[in-house]
């Protein structure tokens, strides 16, 4: 460029300043647009929904809006839009302001779970995690984990004052907790710098196993932690067994409150102050791919616990560990689990969890491999480091939608907590079957949604791939028998049929009797194929046909036939085609769509019980 002037050298800054326009007093970006009314918005929504055929021309104003509304597992009716006119919900005025995140504006703790590994393998995996983005370790000890005696070897080279260690000891929790504190003492880790959680949780153990030690068993060790270890938590209030059994968000909240209150009572009866007792508790909640309910649940949990502490005449914050529920994960098309884990991890972070665990995507198949562990920790690194989600304090706060859902969940969760208290408290409610009965009612509703595919499972009940290459992992040790709340993994119902199909040698195959040209049958043939393949059933189709004779000519003797076409062609040809196929050897004839056609044994349509259809088809192949 030599000595030439730059363009900015030619600008007279003084003259520019004199001629610059005055900035507006208030810059309102929407000022140039007319302010719409709620009715105008509803009319616009109705127009779009009407085009889809979901409402009629004479439907009342707001009918389309209602089509976009949905109900939570707790029966809370959620509208697609909330504004200041709707307020924050009935549960907002609960006696306590929504508390801030315990972690304030800091990043959340990336916590990786380790279970089912030998001592040396566990140590190698732990060090690999800590060297690559994981900030704390959640370690199974005892049944399903490393032996308590191997704890020093497994945690070799782990700096206990830098990387928190959270113990998952189950029935060995007290022994594991004592061993951990002894290890810290042997390494001369100062008590005021030791980090971690001992994981004492007899109530959570009872929820899973059906039995467990008395709640008061935690008092001696918890009292020691309260007196000597300011950065260590002693007791975990684990509500995830409720979610894993198919329970709702409000049930999880209510159970967490009841369990937390039971521990508060036991600890204060044992000599701790309410403040000391609250300080040694850590709460554990499930995070699911239901993004907004997860966010609202974590926000509601802090609000409700603040109310409990207020009633206990003390203060404190609820430390939250959110675990992406392994019940979300599928054995079929497990790569989709990466997306499920990302959404749930996102919701956990946005909801304010202090620690988040995202399981490896292949956890439903067996022991996780290094690649899947890397993906799990990198998922959180992406959310924290690249998306900067942890830099914003309560990013969902102020959203009328989230605030309303938070308030409604808080109210429903408090109501379930009161029901548990009326049943005698958390332990009594578990022992009497009250909690199990309440959870079963919700699980039944969830099972119906899975069976009808109203709740879709991508890669399993929707868009299955019968030709996918199986992902094989080393089996984990047999899980400890659950004598308490059951473990409900929704995908399992479909995966059992897929396993049966793979083991059959020759995959069962149905015949798609397509009527008319390609354009006439493609949509319903695709629907039928999708449903059948979800149950491990392959198909062949007739292709374009002009008569029943054409269909029979393409028929290969399969016992199960599905008629696929338009309603018009069904009226013209379905009955004759069904009769001809029956004569040719078909034993079970179905029709893709609704209707009343002679010779048809059943119907496949959106919202039908897909699992019942699949079971019926399998019986026809027997």
UniProtKB/TrEMBL annotation:
EC number(s): the record gives: 5.4.99.2
Q: Which family does it belong to?
A: Belongs to the methylmalonyl-CoA mutase family.
- Say if the entry is tagged with keyword Iron: no
Highest lineage ranks of the organism?
Answer: Bacteria, Bacillati, Actinomycetota, Actinomycetes, Pseudonocardiales
| GO CC, alphabetical | cytoplasm
- Gene3D superfamilies according to UniProt: Cobalamin-binding domain, Methylmalonyl-CoA mutase
Task: Give this protein's Gene Ontology molecular function annotations.
Answer: cobalamin binding; methylmalonyl-CoA mutase activity
Q: Kindly give the InterPro entries that the UniProt entry links to this protein.
A: Cbl-dep_enz_cat, MeMalonylCoA_mutase_a/b_cat, MeMalonylCoA_mutase_a/b_site
* Name of the protein described by the UniProt record: methylmalonyl-CoA mutase
